[in-house]
Structures are given as C-alpha cells and as structure tokens.
Specification:
alpha+beta; Alpha-Beta Plaits; six-stranded antiparallel beta sheet; elongated
C-alpha cells in the first residue's frame, strides 16, 4: 500500500514537470491572428449619397486635418483647402450671426413696466428722468381718452344741504376728515369720502363710514383728457416692487398691460 502511494505521488510530480516545460509561460505581447481564425467577413451596407455628403461636410469643418485629407483623397491639395475654408466660413457665419432684436425678444422676452397716467407732463418728466438716471431705457408718451383716476368712496342720495352738512360733521368726528359735499350732474348732491389709488384704502374708509351707520360705497372714477405715461424697460434681475410701493398698483402696469420703450 505504501509503495502504491509513492508511485502515485511520483506520477503527479512527473506530469507537472512535463506540463511546465512543454507549455511556454504566458508573457505580455501582441497576438498575431490569421484571417481564417476570424470567420467569414460581415456584410457591409452600401453608403448612400446623403451619407457620403454628410461625411464630407464633417471632414471639411472638423478640427482634425487627417479627417479632412481622407475625405478629400484623390483631389488636388489646393481644391481641398478651398473647400475646407468655404465650409468653415459657412459654419462661422451661421454661428456668429446675431439675431434681430425682434427675434431675440420673442425668444427671451422683455420685462417692461408702464407708469401712469399722469395729468401733468412735469410728473411724467420727473419719473422718466429718475429711471433714465438709473441706466434704464425709458420712453414717454401721451394718450387722449377716458382714464381710470381712482376708487371713489361716497355717500349718495343726500336730500338737501342741511342733511349733508350734518352727515359730513358725523363723518369727520368719526375719523374721516376728507368728507365734503359735492354736486354732480347725474346724481345731484352727495358726500365724497376720498379718492384712492389702491382699493385697500378705499375699502377701509368705506367700512369706517358703514360703522357710523352711513351707506357708503365705492365706484371707479374715470376722467377724460390728455394723460401721460412712462414706459420703462427693467434690467435683468430688477423687479417693479419699489415702483408699486411708490406709485400704487393702479399706476404701475406690468406684463400684457405694459408697453416697452422703442
């Protein structure tokens, strides 16, 4: 049994030595293959005329001179250089051509604000001078017609002046010092409680009068004449919050209601 075990061990050692010396050790290098080892060649689709034209254009405007030489193989060197220069000029012209102002505005849009109306031209001049001095493009214009003036708070249906004066006294003592009697052609005698540019202020005075037991209401007051506006183009990152705080929401128009300076 012992002799059989030694014979098996000796056979394994001899087999290992035979395999080691027969097979050459693997080393890094380049493997050379015969074409027959790769199998039959794959079928290649025929290139169309459009593909050839695209490849030629890419080779003409590419950064690599070797690609351009391969695409223009068989032609004269001077003809190839002229074709490449011509193609580069076309591409550069397409890239560097600046769009017209109207086209650019349609793509990126413009943020403009219209401030007004102003009855006095001097008020519009002052607004234009302020924002022009801040580096913004501005334009002043005027319009004829009926323009919103403000929210008018009033008490209607006053029977006579005695009743009106007594009601005005109640309103002034109740914290509305702006109350006074007025006479209009369409409604006759009534009491005005004030004209407000913002609706919140008008509603506050209306509630004060109603708390005193008087039927006050709010109406939009319009006026005919010549009115002045200032169109302002806001720079990127600039909002209209400060303008609204200064002139009120009724006098600052944005988005679709605003006009941009030419």
């Amino acid at each position: 049994m012992r002799n059989l075990l030694l014979i098996l061990i000796l056979a394994n050692v001899l087999y290992f030595l035979w395999g080691y010396f027969k097979n050459e050790p693997r080393e890094p290098g380049v493997a050379v293959l015969e074409p027959s080892d790769l199998g039959p060649p794959l079928p290649m689709p025929e290139a169309s005329e459009e593909d050839i034209a695209d490849d030629t254009m890419i080779a003409s405007v590419g950064d690599s001179g070797e690609v351009a030489d391969d695409a223009a193989e068989g032609e004269e060197d001077t003809a190839g250089e002229e074709a490449a220069e011509s193609a580069e000029e076309i591409v550069l012209a397409a890239v560097t051509e600046r769009p017209r102002r109207s086209e650019l505005s349609a793509v990126v849009g413009r943020t403009c604000v219209t401030i007004g109306p102003f009855r006095a031209m001097s008020d519009a001049d002052s607004v234009q001078a302020q924002y022009s001095g801040e580096g913004m493009r501005t334009a002043k214009r005027q319009e004829n017609g009926e323009i919103f003036v403000g929210h008018w708070v009033q008490v209607r249906n006053i029977a006579n002046r005695e009743e009106g004066n007594a009601t005005v006294e109640v309103l002034r003592n109740g914290g509305i010092p702006e109350a006074y009697l007025v006479t209009t052609d369409d409604e006759g005698l009534k009491i005005s409680l004030g004209l407000f540019g913002n609706l919140e202020g008008a509603e506050r005075v209306e509630q004060q009068a109603r708390a005193l037991g008087l039927p006050a209401d709010i109406s939009r007051r319009m006026s005919n004449g010549v009115f002045h506006f200032v169109d302002v183009a806001l720079p990127p990152g600039r909002g209209a919050g400060a303008m609204i705080e200064r002139y009120g929401e009724e006098k600052v128009k944005m988005r679709g209601e605003a006009s941009c300076p030419d």
